[in-house]
Amino acid sequence: MFVVAKSDVGKTRQENQDKFCIKIIDDEAVAAVVCDGMGGVQSGGLASEMAANAVFDRLLLNYRSDADDNSIRNTLITSITAANTLVYEKSKEDDDKKGMGTTCIGAIIRRDKAYIASVGDSRAYLLDENGITQITNDHTIVEILYEQGKIEKDDKSNHEMSHIITKAVGTEPDLDPDYFEVELKKNSVILICSDGLTNYCSDELIYSYVYKKDLEQSLDDLINYSNEKGGKDNITVAIIKN
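RE: above sequence
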């Protein structure tokens, strides 16, 4: 397993409200979490830090090398729902924290399979010899409009409501994360990122910068490209190659 990750504040934000945690657990598995906070001065950063640490700590605590698929699924989902409770309760402490929340992707990549739970519009992708595939769903108003046929795919990134998310960790007392299992071929790559990357980088560009490339250089290339095109948000990228 080969793992790289990096976060950048971007060109216009004063604070990086993205948070990532990633670790090779053993010779065959990696745990990764990416969160993108939202809400209020510093509250978004607090939400993402709380959620990322809570999810990551539970993944490391509960993961077992002999765990079956269902056990890993339960670990991922309960880790995110537990983080949701923590952030939601924190948000009620004072008015400055009201409404704070964060996107969250939690993942276990083990041998020939990726297990991923997701909330919000941060994304996980699969890159292999067949190209690039978005694994996760965007929980956004724009995605709903697209699924309803009210806008075209090309309109999504420029829509006035493109950044309004419909589901986040910490904004409601209860949460139902999406869950995915993906089979991995040899030399497959899982890329997890915040929307500071995907606001500027198309799927095709991500694939051309990452697949069969030096992954440390890929991180710099993707972040530099996003900043050159505007860099209006924090940018976080984690890449895991099996």
